[in-house]
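Why does residue order matter? Because the sequence determines the fold. Keep that principle in mind as you read this record.
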Amino acid sequence: MKEAKKTPPARAAELRQLIARHRKKYYVDDAPEISDADYDALERELAAIEKEHPEIATPDSSSQRVGGEPSAAFVNVRHRAPLLSLDNAYSEEELRGWGERLARATGRPVERYVVEPKIDGLSIALWYRDGLLERAVTRGDGIVGEDVTANVRTIGSIPQRLAQPVRFLEARGELFMPLTSFRALNEARQSGGEPPLANPRNAAAGSVRLLDATVTASRKLDGFFYVLAEIEGEAEPATHTEGLARLAALGLRVNPLNAVCRSLDEVIAGIEAIRALRDRLDYQIDGAVVKADALELQRKAGSTSKFPRWAVAYKYPPEQAETKVRDIVVQVGRTGALTPVAELEPVLLAGSTVSRATLHNEDEVARKDVRVGDTVVIEKAGEIIPQVMRVVVEKREKGAAPFVMPKQCPVCGSRAVREDGEVASRCTGASCPAKRREALLHFASRPGMDIQGLGDALVDQLLAKDLVGDVADIYGLEAATLADLERMGKKSAANVVAEIGASKERPLHRLLYALGIRHVGERAARILAASLGSIEELEKSPQEAIEQIPEIGPKTAAAVRTFFDQPRNRELMRRLARAGVRTVAAPEERAVRPPADSEFAGKTVVLTGTLPGLSREDAKARIEGLGGRVSGTVSKKTDLVVAGEEAGSKLDKAVELGVRVVGPEEFARMLAATISNRA
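Structure:
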């Protein structure tokens, strides 16, 4: 007898169960039962049903994993209990010392320990209510974190619904970017002219805090969970390992390398066993975590204000290798920064063959005195990009000459300039091939010439087909040429050409910003346009005269003078003028005033750390456009420090001096408030 066709609600419910089962098999159990194509077919069928019958969609449906609209900001959330970091041990002696302190704190020897890989990622707390994922919160400062639920929903190994109903559950774990995903992401970035990300940990942290969840989904993050922090409606487990088993039964991924040990000798053996597997893992670890297994003992041991006494992180020493420097070459980045790179004799390090290592800048080369022919020690030390740590001076060959940074760009031959207070020399050529992609995108950006449609994909095609060499070539593009490019068509091509034509009438300050002159943000561009009135006046104004303009400091004046002193740049201005681009300020531009309602007007701001969805240059441009001044150092004259993810010593200095510090959310609010008030 033929089976009756299921109703849409019944089929959707069946599909959700099938998808949840196969997600667990793939992501958690690592034992897929169906092919990727068959799994994708299930998701497509569910999405089609829910699109036709939106009223039957449920919050845990796979179709709800990635929202269409980016978040404006992240909400601060207080943790239900502090999410503490761990104290570190760097030797067997220090580890045994921790064990002795733990025994004293509890009044008896520890009978069982658990040893776990220490994932180098981003700590996260998940809240499930009635079995459904309710909230995902970053560590933050341990007391308050950020709500990143929309982004965490995109991670395949994290269930939207638990395998069994639970009234409330909090699980804590570590999110990470698998090394295969990290390498693929960096390859894509480099092929697109973007610099590679330094390491998987920063890549994971940045991906979780992106404002657009669809981008997070493309990053292929993963995670392991290491503690059942809270559970309601059932008895609390007696041990840490029982808690992990409960998490696994509920569908959360638990690291299979976790091991139970009955003595510190076994713990040390377990740490070494994990270390031996380090190069074969698809995720980065920097040590092992050791915990007392009994929860009663954990409660008795308690915590300091910073660390739990019942756990410690054993940190592995960085992996190193010795090799020789074949050559030192200078690369030109997309912002024009010149970076020396050591070409090495290939050597195996941390599971991969290394043949290049960054030398960062000329000061670092001089400090370490790296020369061609030297034997050097290289290290990964948490960085995927290897670094030269030191020179084995006793093995130096006679006659090895010190490295000298070139005074001209090795790509285009333009003058290379290193400004006071800067660590990098920079190419000053506006048409440098190494800078072309970024220069084109910056030129077409909204605060620049605002050429809609001239984005990453089109710029990549224009460069690949050698249709443009610099920004002036944009104005020679024809609709027929663009229509032949991939994914363009006649209508799209005509729209882009119309946008290019409209950009010719943009105000002078937009052109000045779009040229990408060092230190010339939106605010400085407005001031220069208002004060000098034309490209011609800028070209002939001496540096001293530019410095006399209110709010234009010596660095900006020097950068402007250097830019217009380059023959290639002056010729670029001639070509733009011949193309019909406005090079003279409109009357209304000559009366620019700082925005009176801006919270940044007249203030000195320092940026530190990574801001979600906003590059350092973009943040600087936004601040300058609102009347602020961005400085690279914190002092008593600093009015505000904006501290993002991985904020460094500048944050410590700000706290020491009592300077006001704001995080990414407050910074976004300040920007939005000014824009809202002016709208």
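Residues 65-72, 675-679 have pLDDT under 50 and may be disordered.
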